[in-house]
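Reviewer 2 asked us to include a model.

Predict the structure of this chain.
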Amino acid sequence: MRHRARIGIPLALALTLALATTGCSAPAGDHAPRGEPAARTAAFDSCGRRLAFDRPPRRAVALDQASTETLLELGLQDRMAGTANLKTQIPARYQEAYAKVPVITPKIATAEQLRSATPDFVVAGSTDLYTKDRAGTREELAALGVPTFVSAVDCPQHGAPGKSPFELLFSDYEQLGKVFGAEERAGRLAQEQRAAVAEAGEKARGATARDGRQPTVVYLYSVFNGMPYVAGGTGLPGEMSRIVGAKNAFDDVAEDWPEVSWEEVAERDPDFIVIGDLSERGRPGDSAAEKRHAMAGDPVVSKLAAVRENRIVEVPGIELDPSVRSVHALGLLAAGMKDLGYVR
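Predicted model (structure tokens):
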């Protein structure tokens, strides 16, 4: 059970004093990421809130794993005062850098935990981490002089009409690059990932089901208390499907990961199934093996051709949520469709 955070005046004062002696006093080039220029003045909108910086943050806190790995990919570990909400193991390529970052909590951060890290910038993948019973609202943090960033993927309605989820993700890299004076590295990352998206689309060009129509797919993210959670129409898998020429079978459900029934999965009768392996998270029903067992044991779903003929693609589950790793899952999806015969 989570308890509403109560922030007293002494703690708020301590945060204000810490910010006055850290992020607001250093010259623009102090401790800039190695090999990157210091930030110039950066100003932009983040999920409906105007942010402005005249020097790079020195004590950034990432409220989720996706934000943490983005900052690590940009080489900003020396600018991080904390991380939280780890779902799976940090990839090997980040572990040395990650070891330098304090873990303020392995779970979702509370207001007390966040403020104890005396941040001068907070980064999150979604707005739901900024609530009174979590890290505190963005308004509360702004009143303390702490700017808050939210991934553009979670707020496509703010200033980015028509942009794809991947383009919104890449804009996150570029905005964060401006904030920290890491524009070159951020631009290179965005360019490399744009190329990976284009390559996945090219590999899956002309995908068709056996009867010549567009193949349909169900993304099975989790099985909790025996019930499946699948990709709905508002998450990244819908865009992944579009790129590779498939159709997400639950695109008509306006949620990222809705709980459905096995009967609904059977009714959609997908041509193939993508299983998100979350075995490192360790909850019941998280592993790919458990999901396969659940489908094989269901009297209706077990009769689907996709299950009987093993038309299944496994990807790391965390990569189905927007992150610096998502292009890897997209590549696995394109390769899996080819292996299953949907691409000639």
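The first helix runs from residue 9 to 21. Residues 1-32 have pLDDT under 50 and may be disordered. We have added this to the supplementary material.
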